[in-house]
Design a protein that fits this description.
The structure holds 2 protein chains of 2 kinds. By secondary structure, chain A is of the alpha+beta class. Chain A has 15 helices and 11 strands. A 4-stranded antiparallel β-sheet of chain A has the order 3-4-5-11. In chain A, helix 4 runs antiparallel to helix 5, helix 6 packs antiparallel against helix 11 and helix 11 packs parallel to helix 14. The longest helix of chain A has 29 residues. Chain A is globular. Chain B is built from 16 helices and 2 strands. Chain B is globular, with a radius of gyration of 22 Å. The chains are: A alpha+beta, B mainly alpha. At the A-B interface, helix 4, helix 5, helix 7 and helix 14 of A face helix 12 and helix 16 of B.
Chain lengths: 400, 372
């Protein structure tokens, strides 16, 4: 946007190039306006503040300001025992608490080097995938709201409600579960749980199609997202993107496949990556499509887990939980595929304490958001909203 | 009407007749030489529709959207939440009237007023029944198209006066949008005027009456009329800032657009104006293309449905029903479609609707001249 400062006489010309860069050709210098978007803006998905330098409706620069929801997660972890960190991880990505707990439990188990009962692993995968669907439903629904479509949001929440009901039944809480413990689970799933989950899978399959017809195939929706906020694969990798964001840019990178953990290697599922037929690879629509297709894959995973699940006979979900967690001195970095990307935990132990010396969370939302400055350059304000929505940030995880 | 005629017809028609006599009596009421009765008479439909369109428009919108979204909508105040809007109005009335310190007080206060006046002045030329019309102007349609532009002034005053960047964006977008969309809208309405040969709203309506009911409506008179009808409907959505053209108040982009800073009764006035304009454009489209207060029911042999369902009161019923039908369609679209971007909106206006409006204009002219 450096060509802006040409002077002379004439009118302003705004053209949208095919590669989605708005070019303003004008001869009269106009004043740029600083526009503070957030932290109380309806479409910054929480308390994100974007300070935008705008020229008319075109954004010349947008700088994200963080920290409005900072709760000292990492410091808190240093002051509690290992098991007591689990409830804190729920509050990172509060839309996918199960996945965050799963990731943390994997890290500590890696540090302890303990064996987990197979049934525990399957239950963990089921609840994590259920939560992934719930999280993607929120992402897709709120993305609809960002673009002005209100009804898909409520359709998504209607279906998410069923998942929350299931998870509440298993854990006792609707969002902040504290269910996946280090070495096991808080409880076994209720006796009828798996049948209900299977019922949900058969119920939800046609609903994904309904959502697709209502939103993804909507011409206005496609017009608003196709070719907007394109992120090339190499730049995405350089930024450290992960999850649906990276896959939206065409990189087939899924930690469940590329760095497999738990029972994922035994399961058969695809990693959806845009092929450029429905969307321009790397644009907002690709990222939306990846999320939409991932819900189908999660359904597949859940079905397989139910089939392969060992019986509950003589099963104690807490059998492998150590009485006292005091790992040997050392450090570990473990990562898992969250709905929003790679959530990794770096944990350091001094071998004496029952508390971690250092517990650092590598949050995907924070890393994904860091590309905001690049993505927003030269976009219109409505496109900026579309881009923020497609990044699908949860400020609880950005700020920690 | 003679007593023999009265005995033939049903009760609604009788009531309509009485209403007619009553309104004539009221029209003759003068106070100190001023035609006060006429003023009251002209204001009745306005006040009636205004309250209706607000109270039941808002309630209807909430219920319809709830129905589309697997929800219940308002259920607490009264049976099925039917008094919810009244409770909301009471709440808004009690609210503190806040004027932001940095706002331009004059513009901030006068903005909603202009908006309201602009939206409701058009009601003067809407014929609500053969007996009810505020002002039977011979340029009624022209006046209705023109007076809507006054809303632009109100929106700009509200947006600028708020001294809020979001409001400014909303106001500027809104002005660009309304001014642009007036062109296809006006050309589309001109097609209707051409078919009628007059700009008088009452005469346009009367030309569409006949024993065949809906077959006399301009929409079904020529094979071309659906084109200006559709163009005007789309353009009217943009003119009253309804989805998918609600970009001036796009809540996910501009917080609330030009009325971000408004609260309490000023907000309610803006709201009232919005619902007022919704009904206004719906009434205009039904007058020009769908026969206004004429009954759509045809006479079928001995069953004189058209005669039975025509009359002053029936007229009011039909035009309000038609208006509410279009409001329903507007709501339906709003809760289904995402929002367009500003440049896409302008593209639609200048490169799609306007050329097609010209085409329909020429075709209608050819039809009117060469087809008897």
């Amino acid at each position: 946007m450096q060509e802006l400062d040409t002077t002379g006489l004439g009118s302003v010309r705004v053209t949208r190039k095919s590669d989605n860069v708005v070019v303003i050709e004008k001869d009269l210098a106009t004043e740029q306006m600083v526009l503070a978007m957030g932290p109380q803006h309806p479409s910054t998905h929480g308390v994100l503040k974007l300070e935008c330098l705008t020229d008319g409706e075109v954004i010349t620069e947008a700088v994200p300001y963080l920290g409005y929801l900072h709760r000292c997660f990492e410091k808190c972890c240093e002051n509690v025992d290992y098991p007591a960190v689990v409830p804190y991880t729920d509050r990172l990505d509060y839309l996918a608490g199960m996945n965050s707990e799963f990731s943390y439990a994997l890290a500590v188990e890696k540090l302890l080097d303990i064996e987990i009962p197979r049934r525990v692993e399957f239950i963990r995968v089921i609840v994590a995938e259920l939560n992934r669907i719930a999280s993607h439903l929120v992402a897709i629904g709120t993305y609809g709201i960002d673009l002005g479509a209100f009804t898909p949001f409520l359709f998504c929440f209607r279906d998410r409600e069923i998942i929350l009901g299931l998870l509440e039944w298993a854990s006792g809480a609707r969002m902040l579960y504290n269910y996946i413990w280090v070495g096991g689970l808080a409880y076994d799933v209720p006796s009828d749980f798996l049948t209900r989950v299977r019922e949900f899978v058969t119920y939800f399959r046609p609903k994904t199609l309904e959502l697709c017809n209502l939103l993804t195939k909507n011409e206005i929706f496609v017009k608003r997202t196709l070719g907007i906020g394109i992120m090339p694969a190499d730049v995405a990798i350089n930024y450290g993107w992960s999850g649906p964001m990276l896959r939206g840019s065409g990189v087939k990178w899924d930690l469940r496949r590329n760095d497999p953990y738990s029972v994922y290697p035994e399961l058969d599922f695809n990693v959806p990556v845009p092929d450029g037929k429905l969307s321009v690879v790397g644009d907002c629509l690709s990222r939306h499509l990846v999320r939409a297709f991932e819900m189908d894959e999660s359904l597949k995973i859940i079905e397989q887990c139910i089939d392969k699940m060992p019986s509950a006979e003589g099963f104690n979900p807490r059998s492998a939980i150590p009485k006292r967690i005091r790992p040997k001195a050392g450090e570990v970095y473990s990562r898992a595929e969250n709905p929003r990307g790679e959530l990794g935990f770096y944990i350091q132990s001094d071998g004496k304490s029952t508390k971690p010396i250092r517990c650092k969370a590598r949050s995907s939302c924070f890393v994904n958001l860091s590309a905001m400055k690049d993505l927003s350059k030269g976009q219109l304000i409505p496109d900026l909203v579309a881009i923020i929505g497609s990044i699908d940030i949860v400020l609880g995880e950005v700020d920690r | 009407m003679s007593s023999t005629a009265l005995s033939q017809f049903s009760i609604p028609f009788l009531m309509g007749n009485n209403l007619n006599a009553w309104s004539e009596a009221l029209a003759g009421f003068n106070l100190f030489g001023l035609p006060l009765g006429l003023v009251i008479l002209a204001a009745i439909p306005l006040v009636f529709i205004a309250l209706y369109s607000l109270t039941y428009g808002v309630y209807g919108e909430r219920k319809i959207s709830a129905f589309m979204q697997d929800r219940l909508g308002p259920m607490e105040v009264g049976k099925w939440g039917i008094l919810q809007t009244l409770a909301d109005i009471l709440k808004l009335l009690q609210k503190e009237d806040i004027v932001p310190t940095s706002a331009d007080k004059f513009l901030f206060v006068i903005g909603p007023g202009i908006l309201f006046v602009g939206s409701f002045l058009a009601y003067a030329v809407l014929p609500f029944s053969p007996a009810f019309i505020g002002a039977s102007l011979n340029v009624g349609l022209f006046y209705a198209i023109g007076i809507v532009a006054l809303e632009v002034v109100g929106i700009l005053a509200a947006g600028w006066g708020s001294n809020n960047k979001w409001s400014l964006y909303g106001a500027v977008r809104s002005v660009a949008q309304i001014v642009s969309y007036e062109i296809p809208a006006a050309i589309a309405l001109l097609c209707g005027a051409m078919m009628a040969g007059t700009l008088d709203m009452q005469k346009i309506t009367m030309l569409q009456s006949g024993s065949l009911g809906f077959a006399h409506f301009f929409l079904f008179q020529t094979p071309i009329a659906w084109l200006p009808f559709l163009i005007y409907f789309i353009a009217s959505l943009a003119e009253v800032n309804r989805a998918p053209f609600d970009i001036p108040e796009a809540e996910s982009e501009l917080v609330a657009g030009y009325f971000t800073e408004y609260s309490g009764m000023k907000f309610a006035v803006i709201f009232l104006a919005e619902y007022g304009s919704m009904f206004m454009v719906s009434a205009i489209i039904s007058i020009v293309f769908l026969g206004g207060w004429n009954s759509p029911l045809p006479n079928i042999g001995p069953l004189a449905l058209n005669d039975l369902t025509n009359g002053p009161l029936w007229g009011a019923f039909w035009i309000i029903t038609k208006g509410f039908f279009f409001i329903f369609v507007q709501m339906w679209l709003r809760w289904t479609l995402p929002r367009l971007r500003v440049d896409q909106l302008m593209y639609l206006c200048w490169k799609v609707l306007t050329p097609f409006a010209f085409v329909s204009f020429v075709l209608t002219a050819i039809w009117e001249v060469y087809v008897p």
